[in-house]
Amino acid sequence: xxxxxxxxxxxxxxxxxxxxxxxxxxxxxxxxxxxxxxxxxxxxxxxxxxxxxxxxxxxxxxxxxxxxxxxxxxxxxxxxxxxxxxxxxxxxxxxxxxxxxxxxxxxxxxxxxxxxxxxxxxxxxxxxxxxxxxxxxxxxxxxxxxxxxxxxxxxxxxxxxxxxxxxxxxxxxxxxxxxxxxxxxxxxxxxxxxxxxxxxxxxxxxxxxxxxxxxxxxxxxxxxxxxxxxxxxxxxxxxxxxxxxxxxxxxxxxxxxxxxxxxxxxxxxxxxxxxxxxxxxxxxxxxxxxxxxxxxxxxxxxxxxxxxxxxxxxxxxxxxxxxxxxxxxxxxxxxxxxxxxxxxxxxxxxxxxxxxxxxxxxxxxxxxxxxxxxxxxxxxxxxxxxxxxxxxxxxxxxxxxxxxxxxxxxxxxxxxxxxxxxxxxxxxxxxxxxxxxxxxxxxxxxxxxxxxxxxxxxxxxxxxxxxxxxxxxxxxxxxxxxxxxxxxxxxxxxxxxxxxxxxxxxxxxxxxxxxxxxxxxxxxxxxxxxxxxxx
Length: 535
Prior knowledge:
Blueprint: H1 14-17, H2 23-38, E1 43-49, H3 57-76, E2 83-89, H4 105-108, H5 130-145, E3 150-153, H6 154-159, H7 164-172, H8 174-181, H9 187-192, E4 196-198, E5 213-215, E6 220-224, E7 230-234, E8 240-242, H10 244-255, E9 259-263, H11 270-279, E10 286-290, E11 293-294, H12 311-317, H13 320-328, E12 335-336, H14 342-356, H15 361-364, H16 368-372, H17 386-396, H18 401-411, H19 421-438, H20 449-462, H21 471-484, H22 491-501, H23 510-517, H24 519-531
Parallel strand pairs: 1-2, 1-9, 2-3, 9-10, 11-12
Antiparallel strand pairs: 4-8, 5-6, 6-7
Helix pairs in contact: 2-3, 7-10, 8-11, 10-11, 13-14, 17-19, 17-23, 20-21, 20-24, 21-23
């Protein structure tokens, strides 16, 4: 069943959408043209998920980005063409290797090559299988984020007959499918390859064995089972699945998919998927190929390795909307996805939301906030940035939200968790991020003679601004002190302030930090630095 119904669209944006340039509109126009050509009266968007390991952010990115294209399509068609988003899990795939990040890898060895929905769940929690557990993790996040989607299990689709017609056509077109596949394989693989993978009726394993006979009339395949006994199975009813490349094309044809995006690692295979879909009577969907995420070392993020950031890890330190922004930006550019990118993504998200409500209609459609929220960004009064909160936590060494709100309410009179719930949410994230990433890496240094003189001067001049929360006035004072002490470039002065006072290399505008933290408290921090107490 669908989840979280799509928000209504503003009809005043329909005309403006025709000339919108953001990438989701470019992709949606291809789907509009496709339906105009076919005469189809609805659009099916699909995302694929391989649940061999724990869900990672790249998987979420496919659903988020596809939703963005779907929203653009709705605008271009004035919301008159029904749409669906199907999230399809290939959970009938055999477990070819044991993921590195399961609790007890040895316990899973007896279940190699069994369909993932037949492998016991190593994580506990009441799920029947490894596949069920990983599917649930994906659905939990999609539900939390508020996506409208339908979840589809390959095990269910194969076993309940939803793919039977396409599988019978595959038996009829077996030779044509082989003509597509064999040139893509090496000589050794060619000798044993089959697009059909029987599920052994004796061991339950997914078998990679050659076919001895394919009976198109009766819809059966004949092969030797693991024990060498010749076995015949119908291709229907979940007794057989297809190799992953033919499965792509078969699924497109069976379900009449209109749009599917995939990572660059699939790009060379797209022509194979398309050919097989056409052989089985389908029209290949519109594609969008996105670049892969990299970890902090520039290596591709892998489900089985567990490198990079997991969905749950990002959500521990930042709102989900910040993750959606990261997905929206430059999807065809490879980007490193690690913990240091989180603070910037958070502040950029709130900046886009703030700008959205001051923009004309045409500008709104280019704003990431529109695409993140399917056309309905909320209003957020965010008087303090996430970067500032991180520095406040760092300077105060406070891991209690009540202490932080003491600073915030002085900076923003009348502000409280009750009337600023979104800011209160960020306070919690800032504390968690500081605890795990900033505090362990803080490295104070002593000021050199030039910096010591400048800090003493800053301390004296700040005395005249005692009690002030005028960030601009404080920033100008700090700027002038840096100039007076001949820091060139001036960024060296601000870098010194963060290294000496906060044990960090960078931060937000220092004047804003002082306004939030307090002039008196900042002067006390300078005194500690000059006396050697911080280092």
